[in-house]
Amino acid sequence: MTTMEHTLGASIARLESRAKVTGTARYAAEYVTDDALYAWPVPAGIARGEITAVHTEAAMTDPAVVVVLTHQNAPRLHPVEDRTLTLLQSSHIAHRGQYIALAVATSLEAARSAAGAVLVQYKADHHDVVLAEDHPGLYMPEEIDGLWPGTREHGDFDTVYATAEIRTDAVYTTPPMHNHPMEPHAATALWDGDALTVYDSNQGSVTVQHTLAQLFGIDAGQVRVVSEHVGGGFGSKGTARPHVVLAAMAARVVGRPVKLAVPRNHMPAVVGHRAPTIQRIRIGAGRDGCIQALAHEVVTCTSMVGRFVEAAALPSRVMYIAPNSRTAHRVTRLDIPAPSWMRAPGECPGMFALESAIDELAYVCGIDPVELRIRNDPQVEPDSGLPFSSRHLTECLREGARRFGWHERDPSPGTRYEGRLLIGSGVAASMYPVVILPSRAEVRADPDGHYWVRVNATDIGTGARTVLAQIAADALTAPLGYVHISIGSTDLPEAPLAGGSSGTASWGWAVHNACVRLRGLIEHSGGSVPAGGLSVSADTTEDVKSGQEYARCAFGAQFAEVQVDTDTAEVRLRRLTGVFAAGRILNARTARSQFIGGMTMGLSMALMEGSTMDPEFGDYAERDFASYHVAVCADVPAIEAHWIDEEDPHLNPMHSKGIGEIGIVGTAAAVANAVHHATGVRVRTLPIRPDTLLPHFA
Ligand code: MOS
């Protein structure tokens, strides 16, 4: 009974799939509570300044409206580090769309209409919302996220670059992008005395629990956060967001449960977004394509209320041999909504620039871009000098080239016509670091052979719940059907967030350890479980310190084929093939979904996604799905995701690397490189839309 259907790696369907497709899986706004009220927030109508007066009389005329909260009557909150969460505490406006009032009513319609009837007067200050390469506010952050130095130098970039045989120098730009998970940020909040329960859509309920406790001045033990099913997050649900604070605040004021779901067109302003980047990459190389000097310099922006910096130069510290290098970030504060994590922050926009630049170098040198990458593949991580725990980028490139039919390709750009279509193909590498965080987990055995696993993991649509059950079944050598798993509540053993592609490795390690020890206990007692059951809990705080003597990353290679309409300049993706090396793959079905999902986001980034800051208005112009286009089924051609077997003993007991984000990294560059191969036009600004390309066909 130990192997077969539950073996790690098997294609197990999601445990909650039936509940999801039949509509019985409950999301945060769907919890039925007696007597619930509905809340609708009011966004600020200026980008910077002060509220001088708020008139709520008109909003209150509808008897369905219970209260309108503003900075004048809202309960006081205690300060927290994330200043986007100290809501309705002052008359100051830090960005357009910031929540400044909340209407609460017996119906959603009444709340919405009351929110619209709140009259706010402002004193507007001049606002500054546009990022520019020469913005006077640019400064060099010493560190980013407390994790990475803002700038790194090795050797002497300037001298070696100046004398290199081959030199490239180009600027790549990426636009603001928005997370837009299918399920908007939503919460249902209810108080019982000083005890708060929230059903909340987030990527990690422990952070939400602690943030709410701090804000409301109560013990974390008095806050219960339930996040059983979450309809996507893409980074924007990695921390508590305004909706859950407002729902809890309103519920406290009215003494009844309150529901709040963020309207789609508010999301770009209140849940984080990907900041725009301007990235200059200079490469000095020999005629053999070997890189001698590499500079990756990033200019980006953050908000007045946050500290987030898009760490786009990080990939250049990991990817290629570069004895002389400079990787640096400069950032400026603008009066914009707070940027934050979005779908492989740092690596994703950074690898668009780096992998485009590598393709440019390959063309200049006349070397195949697959071969050029292999020539520059390092033995140790260039920045840290640490050996890689495993690095199979070369294998991914070779296997991808074989599957894609890369070598049948004529490398000359702009020459393959099919009627009015130009056809081309491109390649790019992918990379995402291994992140493992401490976690707890608990497992109980019952005498009847059933096992109960408890861990406060969050399944944001990835299949985490299913993979954790597989890890448990494997460690217990029990059939999957006898393993019952509870996740998604702060009542369960404490666990970190679903972010940084760290979830399965982090939670799974704790589950694995608890299950192995429980199995040992059962074997020790002659194979039987006493009447009262047996239970074991695990805490991996010490375990996760191992492996730090290695640089640990997942790698991949992506190959894209595009067609470009020479009349309309519309780019369509024809094929996308990805090959990844991400340690042991624990569930082939959910892993494939993760890779394909990431690659879809990547093609979406390449060809569609991006918003524009309106300098006068002071906010993003595209705030709904009519104007902010994300890839839909019709945009997605044959995507293939494959992986190579990678044995890496320096990770965790499952030997797994994270797979959530690597699929998006590199995709946009593969598409842009294919567009160049098709047309001979090098597009260095995303997204690649007809308005970008058409002028080149005139
Ligand atoms: Mo992901 S952007 O680390 O949630």
CATH topology of the largest domain: Aldehyde Oxidoreductase, domain 4
Report the principal-axis shape: globular
| Top CATH class of the largest domain | Alpha Beta
Mean pLDDT: 97
User: In the CATH hierarchy, what is the superfamily of the largest domain?
Assistant: Aldehyde oxidase/xanthine dehydrogenase, molybdopterin binding domain
Cα distance, first to last residue? 68 Å
Class computed from helices, strands and strand pairing:
alpha+beta
Biggest pleated-sheet summary: 7 strands, mixed
Question: What is the strand tally?
Answer: 28
Query: Could you give the order of strands across the largest sheet?
Result: 3-5-1-14-11-12-13
Number of helices: 15
**Uncertain regions: pLDDT < 50 for 5+ in a row?**
none
What level of helicity do the residues show? 10-25%
CATH architecture grouping of the largest domain: 2-Layer Sandwich
